[in-house]
Amino acid sequence: MFSLDPRLGTDTLAVCELPLSAVRLMNDSRFPWLILVPRRIGASELSDLEPADRLRLWDEVGTVSKVLVALTSPKKVNVAAIGNIVAQLHVHVIARREYDAAWPLPVWGVGVVEPYLPDAADALIAAVRSALDARL
């Protein structure tokens, strides 16, 4: 049975389930930052996915990217599957703005995490869900 890595569970908030991936919101209000976690047991690398699942994952990444663009009007969307600390395969989709706390550098390890206030997290999660529902 699939289970989410506890570190991802601690650092993120549940958004929704896509056909392949669990969508999570990184609990850092400095960056609109979604994470897709393919629900495949033991997957730590893209190459661990079957070819059809790899295609589906990139389709989901593209859809989530479009949703973030529509909701946040970023300068750039960063997509990364690094996994050096959390081995479970997951893909970061981060809306970047020229005035964000890390611009133009990567977001990892910059400053102090600023968790969402509950109402702000709920509002963004609801907006992402609604936008994803409209696209699926």
Q: Can you give a write-up of this model?
A:
The protein is of the alpha+beta class and 136 residues long. It has a single domain, classed as HIT-like (HIT family, subunit A), CATH 3.30.428.10. It contains three helices and five strands; from the N terminus they run αβββαββα. Strands 1-2-3-5-4 form a five-stranded antiparallel β-sheet. A hairpin with a 3-residue loop joins strand 1 and strand 2.
Please outline what is shown here.
With 136 residues, this protein is an alpha+beta fold. The protein contains three helices and five strands, in the order H-E-E-E-H-E-E-H. It has a single domain (6-135), classed as 2-Layer Sandwich (HIT family, subunit A), CATH 3.30.428.
User: How can the largest sheet be summarized?
Assistant: 5 strands, antiparallel
Query: Please, how many domains?
Result: 1
Count of individual beta strands? 5
Distance between the termini: 25 Å
CATH class identity: Alpha Beta
Per the CATH scheme, the topology name is HIT family, subunit A
Which helices and strands occur, and which strands form pairs?
Layout: H1 6-11, E1 12-17, E2 21-26, E3 33-38, H2 51-72, E4 76-80, E5 91-96, H3 118-135
Antiparallel strand pairs: 1-2, 2-3, 3-5, 4-5
Provide key terms for this protein.
HIT family, subunit A; 21% strand; single chain; globular; 136 residues; alpha+beta; five-stranded antiparallel sheet
